[in-house]
Amino acid sequence: MSNTLLKAALAAAAVVGLSCGAGHEEGTTAADVSKEAREAVETTADYLAEQRAHYQDEAEERIAELEKRVDALTERVGEAHEDLVQDLRSRLAVARAHLRDLQEETDESWEELKDGVENAIEDLEGALDSARENVS
C-alpha cells in the first residue's frame, strides 16, 4: 500500500474511531468501526486512482503538445540545426519513456515516477524554449 494511501487509511480509521468513542451511537461495535474504516480505505484508493489517471491524461496531453512544437521547430529550421532537433527528440523520448513507466507501475512507486515524468517534461519544455530563442 502506498504511503499516501496508508496515511489516508489511518486518518480515516482515527476519525471513525474517535466518532465511535464520542458517544454518537450506543452499541457501536468493533465490526462497525472495521467496516467503516475499510470503506474509507476503499474510497481513498478510488480517489487516488482517479487522481493518477487524471495526471496521466494530463501528462500525455502535455507531451503531445510538446511533440507538435518540436515538429514545428524541426520544419522551420530544417537540417541547419540537426543536432538541436536530435537533442529535442531525445528528450521527447525520455519523457514518453517516463510516462510509460508510470503507467505500468504499481501504487507503491507511483509518486516517485510521477516526479520523473514531471522533470522530463519540464526539461523538454526548457530545452524547446531555449532552442526557439537560439534559432529565431
List the helices and strands and how they pair.
Elements: H1 3-21, H2 30-77, H3 82-104, H4 107-135
Task: Fill in the keyword field for this structure.
single chain; 136 residues; mainly alpha; 4 helices; 0% strand; rod-shaped
Describe the protein in words.
- The protein is rod-shaped, with a radius of gyration of 23 Å.
- It has 136 residues and is mainly alpha-helical.
- The chain has one domain (3-135).
- 88% of the residues lie in helices and 0% in strands.
In short:
The chain is mostly helical. The protein is built from four helices and no strands. The protein is rod-shaped and about 80 Å long.
Helical content stands at over 70%
C-alpha Rg, in Å?
A: 23 Å
Q: Average the pLDDT over all residues and give the rounded result.
A: 82
Q: What pattern of helices and strands is seen along the backbone?
A: HHHH
Shape by Cα distribution:
rod-shaped
Strand content: under 5%
Count every beta strand, where a strand is a DSSP E run of 2 or more residues. Answer: 0
Number of structural units classed as domains: 1
- The parts where pLDDT drops under 50 for at least 5 residues are none
Total helices: the number is 4
**Cα end-to-end separation:** 50 Å
Question: Biggest sheet, open or closed, and with what strands and sense?
Answer: none
Q: In terms of structural class, how would the helical and strand content be classed?
A: mainly alpha
